[in-house]
Amino acid sequence: MINLREFSKSYNQFMAVSNLTLEIKNGEIMGFAGLNGAGKTTTIRAISGLIFPTGGSIEVDGHNIVNDKVMASMQIGLVPEFPNFELDAKPLQLLKYYAGFYGINSADAEKRAIELLKKLGIYQYADKKLKMYSQGMKKRFSIASALIGDPNNYLFDETLNGLDPQGVKDVRDLMLSLKKEGKCVFLSSHILTELQNVADRIAIIKQGRLIKILERDDLANLGNTVIKIGIRNPDNNINSVLKGYGDVIFENSFYFIRNASKNLDTSEINSELVKSGYRVFYISRESEALEEYFLKAVN
């Protein structure tokens, strides 16, 4: 489990992240969305212990990332956006070296390293130096590096970048597998459809500040058809008229009916509203995808 409490990070006079409070639970995948420069990578680097908070606190499985950095870091598997390795090394020897930080003996380290290289589809290239790897292969090796110590928490920073469609599917399946094992997964990505495919919740950040957390129900409704209604003379009784058609929400001067029957004709609703004395100036079936919601939220 990862806990951020009023986490802030500044660089000189620039506040990269401000008062961010998040809890990423065991057995869940939390998506992290924001425009470039919003503070996603800064947050992930701070959770992993690569940089320290300016204010607030970060705990990993109850260990403070500043005061108990070694124990906290041992429970983090980081897959950065741009992996950086000793490029003259070969993957097997480097994974065994990383395993040493977790106290894994040489024989077990080699066995685990081979398993991971096979799992990630790069074992056939184990005799090649990392400098010969493509960007996608380096990303796969980076994932193997994050998994070698079997930590409880995983940070994926734009990990889907540079992967082919099969690679994207493999990473998606891996994250779902980690979730099933009860691991904590934090995924930042600008590929919002992929976030929607795997995430239990999505935190949206803008200019270093958390502006919205989309819960499971929110994500389930995104992409579904809703009926949007504009009324010139609303009153307190209108909900009683509309609730017979689905779940009613009032937002930005419009009424939205979610979970309505697919066979429901908007003319039926319009007729009922007019009969009840309401002046309808807009009624339509609409669909909102995550990308649309995100762009509205950050703009």
From TrEMBL:
<keyword id="KW-0547">Nucleotide-binding</keyword>
<keyword id="KW-0067">ATP-binding</keyword>
<dbReference type="GO" id="GO:0016887">
    <property type="term" value="F:ATP hydrolysis activity"/>
</dbReference>
<comment type="similarity">
    <text>Belongs to the ABC transporter superfamily.</text>
</comment>
<protein>
    <recommendedName>
        <fullName>ABC transporter domain-containing protein</fullName>
    </recommendedName>
</protein>
<keyword id="KW-0813">Transport</keyword>
<dbReference type="InterPro" id="IPR027417">
    <property type="entry name" value="P-loop_NTPase"/>
</dbReference>
<feature type="domain" description="ABC transporter">
    <location>
        <begin position="2"/>
        <end position="232"/>
    </location>
</feature>
<dbReference type="Pfam" id="PF00005">
    <property type="entry name" value="ABC_tran"/>
</dbReference>
<dbReference type="GO" id="GO:0005524">
    <property type="term" value="F:ATP binding"/>
</dbReference>
<dbReference type="InterPro" id="IPR003439">
    <property type="entry name" value="ABC_transporter-like_ATP-bd"/>
</dbReference>
<dbReference type="InterPro" id="IPR017871">
    <property type="entry name" value="ABC_transporter-like_CS"/>
</dbReference>
<dbReference type="InterPro" id="IPR003593">
    <property type="entry name" value="AAA+_ATPase"/>
</dbReference>
